[in-house]
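C-alpha cells incoming
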C-alpha cells in the first residue's frame, strides 16, 4: 500500500474581528505526490446564524461557491504548469489557500498548515472534515447532504473538461416565481443545471423536495428563456429510502418543461455530453 505526504489547513469563519470568536467550516488538503488539491466546505450555516447576530447566509454560500470555482481554475493551472513544485505546496498549502481566497473582510480565516501521510487523500479529507467540522454539530441535520454537496460530485468531471468556466448564474422569472440558478449556460436560451439532494434524515422530505420542484417547473412554463432543465440527483444513502426516491423521480418526470434526470453514477457521461454540446454550439467561457 503506497502512502503519500499531505498538508492541510482548517477554514474558519470569524464574524466579528473584535470578539475573535470563530467556528470551523472546512478543510483544504494538498498532496502534490498524488496530484491532489481539494477543499471540503460546510454549506450549512445554521450553526453560524445561531452563533452570530446579523449573519448573512446568502453571502456566506455565495462566497463558498466563488472559492470552489477559483479552486477549480487553480487546480487546472497547477497540473498544466507543474506549479506544485514551484510553490513547494507541501509546506505552503496555506499560501495556496490564501491565493485562492484573498479575504477582503477578514471573515474567513485559514489555519496554519498541518501535515501527515495517507494512502487515500480523498478519504483523509473526508475524515478531517468530520473531525474538524461536522463532529461539532449540536443537533442532527435535516439533510444528510445539501444541494451544494451533491454539486461537488458533478463539479469534478465538469471542471476537468473546463465546462465549469462556462457556467454562470441566472435568474428566471414568471408572474408566479423568481428562481435563482447558480449553474447555467446560454445558447440562445438557458440550459440550467440544478443539483438536487434527496439524501434526507426523514424519507417524507424526499417527496416534499420533488413536489416543490415540480411546482417550480410548472410555474417556469411561462418563461420563454429556458430551454432545458438538467436535474443532478443525489440519491439517499439509506437503502430503505430507495422506494421513496423512485416515487420522487416519478414526480420529477412530470415536470412539463424539457428536462433530464441525471444520476451520480452518470456524472462522467453527463460532463462529456455537456462538453460536446458546448463545443458544437460554440459556448464561450465567462469573461
Amino acid at each position: 500500500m503506497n502512502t503519500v505526504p499531505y498538508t492541510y489547513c482548517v477554514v474558519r469563519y470569524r464574524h466579528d474581528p473584535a470578539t475573535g470568536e470563530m467556528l470551523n467550516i472546512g478543510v483544504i488538503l494538498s498532496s502534490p505526490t498524488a496530484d491532489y488539491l481539494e477543499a471540503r466546505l460546510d454549506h450549512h450555516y445554521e450553526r453560524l446564524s445561531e452563533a452570530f447576530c446579523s449573519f448573512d447566509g446568502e453571502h456566506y454560500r455565495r462566497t463558498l461557491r466563488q472559492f470552489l470555482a477559483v479552486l477549480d481554475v487553480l487546480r487546472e493551472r497547477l497540473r498544466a504548469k507543474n506549479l506544485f513544485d514551484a510553490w513547494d505546496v507541501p509546506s505552503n498549502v496555506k499560501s495556496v489557500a490564501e491565493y485562492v481566497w484573498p479575504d477582503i473582510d477578514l471573515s474567513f480565516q485559514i489555519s496554519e498548515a498541518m501535515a501527515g501521510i495517507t494512502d487515500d487523500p480523498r478519504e483523509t479529507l473526508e475524515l478531517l472534515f468530520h473531525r474538524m467540522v461536522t463532529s461539532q454539530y449540536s443537533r442532527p441535520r435535516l439533510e444528510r447532504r445539501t444541494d451544494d454537496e451533491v454539486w461537488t460530485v458533478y463539479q469534478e468531471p465538469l471542471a476537468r473538461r473546463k465546462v465549469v468556466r462556462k457556467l454562470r448564474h441566472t435568474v428566471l422569472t414568471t408572474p408566479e416565481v423568481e428562481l435563482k440558478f447558480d449553474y447555467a449556460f446560454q445558447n440562445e436560451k438557458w440550459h440550467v443545471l440544478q443539483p438536487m439532494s434527496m439524501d434526507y434524515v426523514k424519507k417524507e422530505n424526499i417527496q416534499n423536495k420533488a413536489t416543490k420542484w415540480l411546482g417550480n417547473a410548472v410555474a417556469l412554463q411561462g418563461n420563454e428563456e429556458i430551454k432545458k432543465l438538467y436535474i443532478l440527483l443525489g440519491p439517499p444513502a439509506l437503502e430503505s429510502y430507495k422506494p421513496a426516491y423512485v416515487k420522487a423521480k416519478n414526480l420529477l418526470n412530470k415536470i412539463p418543461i424539457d428536462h433530464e434526470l441525471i444520476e451520480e453514477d452518470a456524472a462522467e457521461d453527463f460532463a462529456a455530453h455537456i462538453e460536446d454540446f458546448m463545443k458544437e454550439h460554440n459556448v464561450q467561457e465567462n469573461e
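note: The longest strand covers residues 4-14.
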